[in-house]
Every structure is written in structure tokens, then in C-alpha cells.
Here is the input.
Amino acid sequence: MIRKKVCLLGSFAVGKTSLVRRFLHSEFSDRYQTTVGVKVDKKELEIDGQAITLVIWDLYGEDRWQEVRGSYLRGASGGFLVADATRLETLDVVRGLAQRLREQDPDIHLQVVVNKVDLRDGLAIPLAEWRARIDWAPLTFTSAKTGEGVEQAFDALARACLSPR
Amino acid sequence: MDALPELFAAQVLRAQFAEGAWAWVRVDEQGVVRERGGDWSRFGFESLLPGTVAMDALPFLVGSLPILAPHALPSVTFGAGVSADVWVFPVPDGFGLVAHDVSDRVRQVGRMQQEGYQLSLVNARLTGQGLGSAVRSGEDLLSLLKMAVFECDENGVCSALGTLAPWADPFVEPALAGQASTGRTLKQGDGLSFLDNFLEDAQIFWSSGQAGHLASGVWCEALDGGKEACFEALAALDEGGHRNLVIERVDARYAERQGTLQRARQAHLDFETLRGEVQKKEVLLQCIVHDLRAPLANMMGVLSLLKGSGLEPDKVRELLDLALRQAGRQDQMMRDLLEIFAAEVAALQSYDTDPTSAPDLAQVLRERIRERIPAFEQAQLRLELELPATPARLPVAAHADRLDRVLGNLLGNAAQFAPAGTEVRVEASLDLAATPAQVEVRVLDRGQGVPLGEQARLFDRFAQGAGSAGAAGLGLYFCRNAVTTWGGTCGYRDRAGGGAEFWIRLEYLGSQE
Here is the structure.
């Protein structure tokens, strides 16, 4: 079976671990639990009749207290970059991480998600503006809480990882 | 220390500044420092003086320009070794920046983390200075230390030394019949697991002959049976040149580190949430004041016309009716605000997409134009409306009250900038070829238009053109927020033949036949 490593990256508390839980177990908890280090999970998918195992590296949120190690990104076919729809500053972190991923591997597949779109009243900027600002990579709006867009985003990245580089 | 300017203070939570030094700077559109205040020497930037180029001193801003909306920058460390929270936000002629020294808080969290690392360092010392030898001589320390110890060769094959606890089973090849733990080898995968990834780094480290150790950092994964466990690996060369690898269960230490980080990050999130709430309320208040001015301006226009002599009684009655309607509109608005303020905040994002109840743009335009004609006449302006011949109704995805305000803001803008004696045109057209079909409304005047340099941030908060003194700069900001919330777009282009053309496009919900 084909195995592909994808790294989940983004600022802290954007919902990376919640997205993985939703994708793997269809679960969600409102309680924020920060991730220390790396959580590694696997999910088997079938894309157009082809079986694929996604090895998902859920990396700790990057901030002044924790910076993502370059060696963790080695061997990744895809980068799953997560921003928080209610915190515009998380887009700056996503941009910086995308740059680092591309420096490490110019051909890496990127998928940006703007998470927490169920919080309609708390959006930092309208969704149309998020879309306008993220015109450099495929973008999906997601909610780990409701499940909106989560499967589509992971499927899209898995599909991209199967395509020729 | 001097006070933080009011415009800047509105962007940050003042209570946050009770401790730690802060500084602010206002930079114009050319990137030149115009004003500064606070304790810049604390940040090592005594040279950041008015007239100097801001980017030379603040290179971390380069990727963030232009500043279109207020936001915080992640983790900025200044040259003087000062960790700072930094906020940037647009101001009328450039952008502002406030830096707040949070070095003490960062150091405090660092100390707490350091305590968590102590055990790692002790383990590393053991690994490098004799743990491998102790185990080889038969001492069973491993279960006490929750460790699995391996010796690796130059090809990356790692064999267990001593007894392996059951938790280590997922990492090693299955035992052969009758095989003891000692000698079982680590699984070799395709490089995608955490341990595989670390072993690549470990091989490089061992080959370099460096003293000390290499730590993998903590990782967690589900063991057989689905229960998640957390580990850390250490690689070191011992005094005999053996390549030792230690895998340690670190569940308790993980929980401790998580608690420390969680508290620090939760505090940061709470602060950001509070700041966002303060800003949201502030914007709402400013929008309300702006909206309350619109009917008042219409009433003043009517009163000015009434002051003139020679009006027919019917005309006077019509004008008084109009003034009363405007007064009633303002009264209704204020009562609504007082009575349902909380509900209004919650409903800011709502709008109607039901074709039968959605606002009819044609009707809204006819009403708004009719209301505005006296004020336009007073300013010696002609106001013309051009609607498509068919269909009669133009239902659009919007919120009726806020659509009123959007159109009112665009008309108010045109009235302000169109020269006396000219015509302001309002045109609506239906674009059935678009997906989804859209209605476009254009408001055209023969004023001076908007200079190219101001067009990009025309719809930003507090954006003011050179001739818009006295306005809060929120009208177009409100328009953009409302229209984009409804899935529409808005913009500006220079009008052919001179003047300004503001447009909005909204989804058309009516029949497409």
C-alpha cells in the first residue's frame, strides 16, 4: 500500500488536533488541549480505487515557546496548514510555515484550511477576504466542530500527494 | 513616559500595559517614521526617529505590508533580546505599531519548561556515561527508568540491550520462539514514522563523534490496543564508542509540560479574545454614530429648503412628510438600538436568501433616491436613477436594513464629492451570465475621483480621502463588510470621462427567464 506523510502545521490553538480527531474518529471536544511535541496517526483511504495510508504528523503549534524543527518535515509529501478564522494573525504563521516547507521541498503539496468557520460571529475578516488573501495554495474552509470541509480537505491533500510531482 | 495616543490605545488593551515597557510608532505610506513615543531604547531602537525609514529598523514588518487590518504579529524578538507582543493596524495615512515588552513572561515560561527538561538531561548523561555498560553487565535498571535501551550499528540496525517492557513491543520486530528481549531489533520502516525519522538524525549525530546527546523531542502515538502513549528518544555515544539509543516513556513529563504551556497559551488566547471584543464593540459604536448622522443630514436638507420662500403648500407638506419620515427613521433606529442591542450584535452576519422575502433592490433604490432628492437639490445636484426595463423586481441576497445603509453611504459619498451643477447617476443592471447571477449597482459622479494611491485602502476602516475631513472614514468600511458578508463584492473604478464610480455586486435571487 502507498504510504504518504503529511504534516499538520499552524499557530497554537487553531484546531490542528481537533481536525485530526474529527477526521480519524468523527469526534470533537470544545476543551482546548495544547499539543506538546508531535502526535503521529494513520488513516487508510481509497482515492479513485487506489488504497493509500496517510501518516499524519500533527505538530505542536508554533509560537515563541515552541518552534517547529526542520527535521520533522523531512519526507513529507504534503503540508496541511491550518489558520483560525477568528484570528487573523494565524495567517502570518501559515505563510511563514508554507515558505519553510517550500524551502525544504519546492514540490511539496500544500493544503491550507481556515478552521472554526462555524463561529460566524467571530470571523476576523469575511470568508471572501480570507479567500482573497490565500490565493497561493488550495484553500478549504473547515469546522472541526461541525465536520464541515474536514474530510474534503484531507481527501484533497491525499489526492494531490498521489499525483505526479 | 508619555501617553499612548488615543487612536493607538484603541487597538490594544490598556490593562495589558500595566507591566513592562512599551513603545509606539506611526509610519506613513512611504514607510517613513512620522511620530514615535514610549521607551524605544528598551527595544534597542534609539535611532528610530521621525524622518527615518521604519523598515530599516523593523525588518520583520516587510512580509506584513501593506497593513490592511489590525492584527498581532507572532513572536517578535528585537535586536536587544527583548521579546515583544507587537500589534499593527492601519491609520489614516499609513500604519501604526505598538510594541509591548513581555520578556519577563517569556523567561518565566522558559524556566518552567527548563525544569521539565532536567530529567532529560540526567537521562542523557546516564546514556552517554555508562548506562549502556551498566545494562550490558546485567543490571536491570530499565523498568525503573521506563526506558528501552538499544545499541545500533553503522547500518542503522538497533538491537535491544536488556529486558524490554511490553510498551516497547510496537517498536521492535516480533520475538522469535524462545528469544529473550535482549537482541530484539528495532523495526525498520519507510522513514515516515517518528522513530525512523529520528534515527536518520541519530546516524548523522553518531557519525560526527560529537559528545553530548541528541534528543528527539516528545512524540505521542497510539500503541497496539489504541491507547496513546508519549515517548522521547535520546541518541549518544558512550565512552566505549557504542551507539546508544534510549527510548523513554514520558507520559508524566508530557502532562507536566502540557500543563505549563497550556496555562501560558490560554492566558494569551484570553487576552486576544478580550481585545477582539473591545474592538468589535468600538467599531459597532462608531458605525451607529455614523448611521445616526444620515437621517439628520436629510432633515437638515429639508429644513434648508423650507427656509426658502415661495414654496407651494403641497411642496411644503411633502417636505414636512419627508422630514418626519427621517425623524421617525432615526427614532426607530435609536429605539431598536436600545431595545435589541444584543440581538443586533448576534445578527450582524445574517441576511436573507429567500427570493420571496429578500430585499427588492429596485424598490430600495427608488425609495432611497426619492428621499435623497431634496438634499441633492439643495447642493445643486441632479440625481438620476436608471433601472433595467425588466424584471420589475430585483431580489438580492442581502439584509434589508443594512442594504439601506450601504446605498445611503454610497449616495452620501457622491453628494459630498460631486461639484455643484453636475449630475449623480445611479445605475443598476442584471448579469445573468455570472454564476450565480448578479445585480450590479453603480453610483457615478463627476467629482475629482479617487487618487490612485488611495484606491487600494478606500474601503478600509478610517480610510479618508484628502477631501473627506470631518467624516469618520467608516462608511465604505461598513459597505465592504456588509456586502462581502452577503457573498457579494464591491469596488471602485475611475469613471469614464472623469469622476468616481463605486459599484457593488450582489447575488440575484429572482427568476432567470
